[in-house]
Design a protein that fits this description.
The protein has about 725 residues and is an alpha/beta fold. It has 18 helices and 30 strands. It has five domains: about 100 residues, 3-Layer(aba) Sandwich (GIY-YIG endonuclease), CATH 3.40.1440; about 60 residues, Arc Repressor Mutant, subunit A; about 180 residues, P-loop containing nucleotide triphosphate hydrolases (Rossmann fold, 3-Layer(aba) Sandwich); about 180 residues, Rossmann fold (3-Layer(aba) Sandwich), CATH 3.40.50.300; about 90 residues, Ribosomal protein S10 (Alpha-Beta Plaits, 2-Layer Sandwich). It binds zinc ion (2 copies). The site of one zinc ion (ZN) has 8 residues, from loops.
C-alpha cells in the first residue's frame, strides 16, 4: 500500500522555523484533506498543524516519518490554505501565522460544539399507548409538553424523570449539537421590507448586479472591483442588501465587511432583519463558543452570508459570489498583528479566487481605491435633503476651548430640545502635565511619550498602558504648581455638563476608556438614541456610520490635530473625519449645521471638507501623491527592528538596509523611533514602484537575518502598505 503523506505546516510563531514537514497519515486518517487541523508530535513536543498538501511520496523514508496524533475539528477549506500561503508572501510573514488567523475561532484552544441531551416524544400516549393509564400526573404533563412543543433540552424538564419515560419507550433521549446564539443588534429598528430605491440607487444597482452576474469578468468591473462613492445618507447599505439578495438567489454566498460592529450595530441589524438566519456574525464581542458555532454554520453552508469586521474576510464560505467592504476608508481594516494584512487587499484576492464581485463603499474613499476601482456615484441623500452647511471657525487667538459660535450653537440645541455630536480625537482629561516652576514634563518610563492625565486621578500612557497616581509635587524641584495642557474628551464632557448639563440635557461620552467593556459602546449609542435631547462627546468613534435623525449639530474640535501627525495619510484622515462627522448631522426634518474649530482654517483637507467637495480633494491628493511617489503611485514597506538594547536594534536595521536592493526603490533609514514598551526601535522605509520585487527583496533579507535576530533578541516587524 502506498503511504499517504501529508505536508503539514506546524502552527508555531518562530520565523526561523520553516515548514512544511512531512507526516505519514494512518489509514483511519486518510480522509483528512488539505486544510485539516492536526495534533502532531513536533520538535519533541505536541503542536497543532494544518495540512497544506498531500502526496504519495516523501524525500524521507516513510517508515521514519511521524504520524499525527489526531485529526481535530475546526480545519479550514482548501481555498483558505491557498490564501494563507499568498498572505504569508505578500506581507513578509510565515504560513503558520497566516493559517493561525483562519482556523475556527478557539479551535486551537479546544473550543468545540456544545452538545446537549434533547428529549423527544417517541410515541404519542394519546394514541392508545400501552400502560398510559399507569402514568403519574407529572409524567402525563411532561409528555403533553413534548407533544405541544416538540424536542426540548432534557435539563429543562429533569433528566431522571425523562430516563424513566425513556425506559418505557415513550421518550427518546439523544445528544445533539446546540447552537450558542449571538444576541441581536440593539440600536435602531430595522425592517425586513426593502424600501423603494431612488433613481440613483437603481442605476448603481444595475451595474453592481451586472458584476455579480458576470463574476468571471471581474476585470471588466475594473481590476480592483467596484467603488461605490456615495455621500453620507445616500443609501449605500440598501445597494449592498440588494446585491447580497441577488447573490443568494444565484445560489452563491456573500461576505459583508464592516469596520467595527460595536459602533455600527445598525448595519448588522439591517442584514439580520432582511435575511434572517442565513446571516452569521463573526465579531470579537461574541463569546468564543458563539463565534465557533457561527463559524461552523458558515462552514457547513447553513449560513451563507457572513457579516463581520476585517477577520470575516476569512469566513469559511464556499462559492463566494460577492464581497462587500463597507466604509472602505476605515483604518480598522488594517490588522496590527503579524501578518499585518489589509482586509481590503485580501478581499480582492479572495474575490479573484472565487470569481466573486468586490463592492467597496464610502463617502470618503481612499485615493488608492479611486485610482484602481471602477467608481459609481450616489451624489444625493435618499431623503433629498442637502448636506449640512459646514462653518470653519478660526481658533487662533481664542482662549476658551469652545469658540463663542460653538457655545451659542450648543445652547440653541439645548433650547430646542435637539441633539449634538462633538468630536475631539483625544481621550483623557489633559494631554500632558508639566511643572510650572522647572518645566519638568511627566513622561512614560517605558515609552518616550507624555503621560495623559485622566479624570479619575491618574496619569496614563496611551501606548503601553502604564499608569501612576496624579503627582502632588514635581519630582525634580518639589514645586506643587503643575500645569495641565490641552483638553481631552473627559475635560470636554465635564465642561459641557457644567455649561449645559442641568435641566435634563444629558451629556454622553464615547471613547476607548468607556468602550473597554463588552458592548459598552453600543450601550452608549443606544442611550443617546433613546434620549429626547442631549450631546454625545467622543473620539473618532462618534463619526462612524450610525444614523440618528434628530442630530442637528456636529462639532469638530481641534480639527487640525490629525494634520500634525507626520504621516502621508494625514490629509486624507482629516478630510474623512470632518466629512463623516458632517454626515451624522442634519438627517432629520430640522436640518443641521456643522462647526469645525481649527488653528489651520486654510488647510486643504479642511477647506474641501467644508465645501463637501470630495472630487477636488481627491484630485489634488492624487496629484500630491504622484509627485511624491506615495500610494497608489508607489508602494511603501516599513520595517521596525526593536530590542531592549538600542545598539542592537539600530545595527540590525543597518544590516537589513544593506541587504535590501530593489532597482528604482529608495531604502530610507535606519531612523530611530521613540522608545515603546521599554524597547528601542529603529525603522526602515522602502518606497518602490516594483511592489512584488520589493516584497520579495524584503522577505529574503528578513528571512536571511531571522536566526541572527532572534539570537540577538531583536524582533523584526514588517508592514507592507503601512497605515
Ligand atoms: Zn519642577
Ligand atoms: Zn508607555
Amino acid at each position: 500500500m502506498v503511504p499517504m503523506i501529508a505536508r503539514v505546516e506546524p502552527l508555531t510563531t518562530a520565523r526561523a522555523l520553516r515548514g512544511p514537514f512531512d507526516y505519514r497519515l494512518r489509514e483511519e486518517q486518510h480522509d483528512a484533506g488539505v486544510g485539516a487541523l492536526l495534533r502532531i508530535p513536533f520538535a519533541g513536543r505536541t503542536a497543532l498543524g494544518v495540512i497544506v498538501g498531500l502526496s504519495d511520496s516523501s524525500e524521507i523514508v516513510p517508515e521514519r516519518l511521524a504520524e499525527p496524533d489526531a485529526v481535530l475539528p475546526g480545519g479550514i477549506p482548501a481555498d483558505l490554505v491557498e490564501l494563507a500561503t499568498w498572505m504569508a508572501a505578500e506581507y513578509c510573514s510565515t504560513p503558520a501565522r497566516a493559517l493561525g488567523l483562519m482556523l475556527a475561532p478557539g479551535a486551537a484552544q479546544g473550543t468545540r460544539s456544545r452538545e446537549v441531551l434533547v428529549a423527544e416524544l417517541a410515541h404519542d400516549p394519546s394514541d392508545g399507548a400501552d400502560g398510559a393509564e399507569r402514568l403519574t400526573d407529572r409524567q402525563r404533563a411532561i409528555l403533553e409538553r413534548l407533544r405541544r412543543e416538540g424536542p426540548i433540552a432534557a435539563s429543562a424538564i429533569g433528566t431522571d424523570a425523562l430516563r424513566r419515560l425513556e425506559r418505557r419507550g415513550l421518550v427518546t433521549l439523544e445528544r445533539r449539537a446546540q447552537r450558542r446564539r449571538p444576541g441581536q443588534a440593539t440600536v435602531g429598528s430595522a425592517s425586513a421590507v426593502a424600501p423603494p430605491l431612488t433613481d440613483d440607487q437603481q442605476a448603481v444597482l444595475g451595474e453592481v448586479l451586472g458584476a455579480v452576474a458576470r463574476p468571471s469578468r471581474l476585470d471588466g468591473a475594473g481590476p480592483g472591483g467596484i467603488l461605490l462613492h456615495g455621500v453620507t445618507g445616500s443609501g449605500k447599505t440598501e445597494v449592498y442588501l440588494r446585491a447580497v439578495e441577488a447573490t443568494l438567489a444565484a445560489g452563491r454566498s456573500a461576505i459583508v465587511l464592516v469596520p467595527e460592529i460595536g459602533l455600527t450595530p445598525q448595519a448588522l441589524g439591517r442584514f439580520e432583519a432582511r435575511f434572517g438566519d442565513v446571516v452569521a456574525v463573526l465579531h470579537s464581542a461574541l463569546g468564543q463558543g458563539e463565534r465557533y458555532d457561527e463559524w461552523v454554520r458558515l462552514r457547513s453552508g447553513e449560513a451563507r452570508v457572513c457579516v463581520g469586521p476585517r477577520s470575516a474576510v476569512f469566513a469559511p464560505l464556499a462559492d463566494i459570489g460577492l464581497i462587500v467592504v463597507d466604509e472602505e476608508h476605515d483604518a480598522s481594516y488594517k490588522h496590527e498583528g503579524d501578518p499585518r494584512y489589509d482586509a481590503r487587499t485580501v478581499a480582492l484576492r479572495r474575490a479573484q479566487q472565487h470569481g466573486a464581485a468586490l463592492l467597496c463603499g464610502s463617502a470618503t474613499p481612499r485615493p488608492e481605491s479611486v485610482a484602481s476601482q471602477r467608481r459609481l456615484r450616489l451624489p444625493r441623500r435618499v431623503d433629498g435633503r442637502p448636506l449640512p452647511p459646514v462653518e470653519v471657525l478660526d481658533m487662533r487667538g481664542q482662549h476658551h476651548p469652545l469658540h463663542p459660535r460653538t457655545r451659542m450653537a450648543l445652547a440653541d440645541v439645548r433650547r430646542g430640545g435637539r441633539k449634538a455630536i462633538v468630536l475631539l480625537n483625544r481621550r483623557g482629561w489633559s494631554n500632558f502635565l508639566s511643572c510650572r516652576a522647572c518645566g519638568h514634563a511627566w513622561m512614560c518610563p517605558n515609552c518616550e511619550v507624555a503621560l495623559v492625565l485622566h479624570q479619575a486621578g491618574f496619569v496614563a500612557c496611551h501606548h503601553c498602558g502604564h499608569r501612576e497616581p496624579l503627582p502632588e509635587r514635581c519630582r525634580s524641584c518639589g514645586s506643587a504648581a503643575l500645569a495641565r495642557h490641552g483638553a481631552g474628551t473627559q475635560r470636554v464632557e465635564h465642561d459641557l455638563r457644567a455649561a449645559l448639563g442641568d435641566g435634563g440635557f444629558p451629556v454622553f461620552r464615547l471613547d476607548a476608556d468607556i468602550a473597554g467593556g463588552k458592548d459598552r459602546a453600543g450601550l452608549t449609542l443606544a442611550q443617546f438614541e433613546a434620549a429626547d435631547a442631549g450631546v454625545l462627546v467622543g473620539t473618532q468613534m462618534v463619526a462612524k456610520g450610525h444614523d440618528f435623525p434628530d442630530v442637528t449639530l456636529g462639532v469638530v474640535l481641534d480639527a487640525d490635530q490629525t494634520l500634525r501627525f507626520p504621516d502621508f495619510r494625514a490629509e486624507e484622515r482629516t478630510f474623512a473625519l470632518i466629512t463623516q462627522l458632517a454626515g451624522r448631522a442634519g438627517r432629520g426634518d430640522a436640518g443641521g449645521t456643522v462647526l469645525v474649530q481649527t488653528l489651520a482654517p486654510e488647510a486643504r483637507s479642511i477647506e474641501h471638507a467644508a465645501r463637501h467637495d470630495a472630487d477636488a480633494f481627491l484630485s489634488e491628493e492624487l496629484g500630491r501623491r504622484q509627485a511624491l511617489g506615495y500610494p497608489p503611485f508607489g508602494s511603501l514597506i516599513r520595517i521596525v527592528c526593536s530590542a531592549e538594547d538600542a545598539g542592537e536594534a539600530a545595527s540590525l536595521a543597518k544590516e537589513l538596509h544593506d541587504r535590501i536592493s530593489v532597482p528604482g526603490a529608495a531604502v530610507l533609514g535606519p531612523a530611530p523611533l521613540f522608545r515603546l514598551r521599554g524597547r528601542s526601535r529603529s525603522q526602515l522605509v522602502i518606497k518602490a514602484t516594483d511592489r512584488p520585487g520589493a516584497i520579495a527583496a524584503v522577505g529574503a533579507a528578513v528571512e536571511g537575518l531571522a536566526a541572527g535576530a532572534s539570537r540577538r533578541r531583536v524582533s523584526i516587524s514588517v508592514d507592507v502598505d503601512p497605515q
